[in-house]
Specification:
Blueprint (H helix, E strand, L loop, with lengths): L1 H19 L38 H12 L5 H15 L9 E3 L10 H25 L2 H17 L2 E3 L3 H7 L2 H9 L8 H17 L3 H7 L3 H17 L2 H12 L20 E3 L2 E3 L1 H4 L7 H21 L15 H12 L19 H9 L4 H9 L12 H5 L19 E3 L10 E8 L3 E8 L5 E10 L2 E8 L11 E9 L2 E9 L2
Parallel strand pairs: 1-2
Antiparallel strand pairs: 3-4, 5-6, 6-9, 7-8, 7-10, 10-11
Helix pairs in contact: 3-4, 4-5, 4-7, 5-8, 6-9, 6-10, 7-10, 8-10, 9-10, 10-11, 10-13, 13-14
């Protein structure tokens, strides 16, 4: 008996060691990796550091969101009011974690799938709602409630099984990870508690719950759900190796695959472009096309959230294209035509639709210049919500800003960079300038006045890949000649450069 127990412990330690081990090299191999191994997958995380939050928002965007709420700017104003109303209700929620949860597939006789989804959802919805309310209000009553829910599940040590466990934990339960990310730095969440939560999630959700293997072995919407669970977990666990594997899997969406883990090998295995129609080939054929739009919605709502987490980590794939030339923008726009504009769906004349998973529209709105009908629909249907992805997407993304605001960044190769809008803006004494680079590069940041004269050189050195923040102290103490007006900051990295405007109000 003791011998068997010892073997099980050793096996568990060895299996978990894959994610506990430090990153050893840029060419790290992973189980069931996308094949063939490409140079494009040789992602470097040297010098990378986790920050929180990094799932549904980041520190830069939160400052902008808080300012918009303070200034009563839509769509955040109404979405925030709804959040606080819902959070007040969730303060009375009693978490109800079971010791075990067996999640059956919807195709199984007498399936319990709907019941299990509702069970997962009511708990993670309460945790995420309260954690987000804490983020915007700093009221510890919300943080304590979120922590209570997280720790009840972790201390119960709930285990998961069943054919659908990996799919449902990755999609329907990821908001539990969003909550953990949002309260990660809350002083009341003690390190011992945090460790308990992390260990439970790693062992019972990622491994035994099958989330990570779903990401590896599936190629349809299951993969997107598993990937969302893996990337969200990587942030909360602060696991660089886990993050890297997730990034490789996500990036493989844009490349051909011929390995045994995809059913449609070739360049269009995940995203296909046929006769100017961009679609998800593994989804549109579901149930003879009758469920094609529903499963496209399932895939898009988690896929686009994965792209956001990758962006927060410094890897912006939003403007990538497949080898056939298909883009995420075209994919979402085509789905909108089928979903909202009722354009004929080639695989079925009367496809079912999902009204609860439309966060991809709000996300696309901050990254791309969309057609007027799509913009108008987004405006008229806020706040956009959904039971997967980010249910508070209008609050965390709506009209925030377009990531590629400067035309010089359009179609820029991934090895270049992204320059964020400074925050706060307008500002009085100082402001933060954040940028992301994809490879080690010498970066310069120079401040100019409206006459084109150099005011300050903020940076001129080599930076490691990832996100970085540079602070400009424009107070009279250091810059007596800086007065009210418009200034410009120019970032140059390698042969690429871009410039953005900012406003000083003293």
């Amino acid at each position: 008996m003791l011998t068997k127990l010892f073997i099980r412990i050793v096996f568990s330690i060895s299996f978990c060691g894959l994610f506990l081990a430090p990153l050893k090299s840029d060419a790290q191999n992973f189980p069931k990796q996308p094949e063939p191994w490409r140079d494009a997958y040789d992602i470097s995380l040297a010098g990378f550091e986790f920050s929180h939050p990094m799932t549904v928002s980041n520190r830069d965007e939160l400052e902008i969101l808080k300012q918009r709420i303070s200034d009563n700017i839509e769509p955040q104003k109404t979405a925030y009011e709804q959040l606080i109303s819902e959070a007040a209700i969730q303060l009375d929620f009693t978490p109800d974690p079971p010791s075990t949860m067996h999640i059956m597939g919807g195709y199984e006789p007498n399936s319990n799938l709907d019941e299990m989804r509702d069970w997962l959802w009511r708990n993670c919805h309460a945790a995420y709602t309260c954690a987000l309310a804490y983020t915007f209000t700093d009221d510890v009553i919300y943080a304590e409630k979120a922590k209570e829910i997280l720790m009840d599940w972790a201390n119960t040590n709930t285990t998961f099984s069943g054919n659908d466990s990996g799919l449902q934990l990755g999609s329907w339960f990821s908001p539990m990870l969003y909550a953990a990310d949002l309260i990660y730095n809350y002083p009341g969440w003690e390190e011992a508690e945090k460790t308990t939560f992390k260990n439970w999630w790693r062992n019972n959700c990622l491994l035994v719950g099958d989330v990570i293997d779903v990401m590896r072995r599936k190629d349809n919407n299951w993969k997107d759900a598993g990937l969302l669970g893996v990337l969200s977990a990587a942030v909360v666990l602060e696991d660089t190796l886990l993050l890297k594997e997730g990034l490789i899997q996500l990036k493989s969406y844009f490349y051909s695959r011929t390995d045994d883990y995809v059913r449609i090998p070739g360049s269009g295995w995940k995203i296909r472009n046929d006769a100017n129609v961009v679609y998800l080939p593994r989804e549109v054929i579901r149930n003879d096309g009758r469920s094609g739009l529903t499963y496209t919605a399932y895939a898009l709502t988690t896929m686009t959230q994965c792209l956001e987490i990758a962006r927060y980590a410094g890897f912006n794939y939003w403007n990538n294209s497949t080898q056939e030339g298909a883009t995420i923008k075209e994919l979402i726009e085509q789905y909108f035509k089928w979903d909202i504009e009722n354009e004929t769906f080639p695989w079925n004349s009367n496809p079912k639709k999902s009204s609860k998973r439309r966060n991809c529209y709000e996300l696309a709105n901050i990254h791309f210049e969309l057609d007027s009908p799509m913009k108008e629909w987004i405006k008229n249907n806020r706040p956009i919500k959904g039971r997967e992805g980010d249910e508070y997407i209008t609050l965390t993304k709506g009209d925030l800003y377009k990531v590629t605001t400067d035309l010089s960044e359009q179609n820029m190769p991934e090895a270049a960079f992204h320059l964020s809008q400074n925050y706060p803006n307008p500002f009085n004494n100082g402001t933060n300038i954040r940028f992301e680079i994809q490879q080690s590069e010498k970066v310069s940041i120079i401040i100019y006045n409206s006459l084109g004269q150099v005011v300050k050189e903020l940076a001129n050195k080599i930076y490691s890949p990832g996100g970085h923040n540079v602070y400009w102290d424009a107070s009279n103490k250091y810059n007596s000649k800086v007065g009210n007006g418009i200034y410009f900051y120019k970032l140059a990295a390698g042969k690429y450069s871009t410039t953005k405007a900012m406003i000083v109000l003293k």
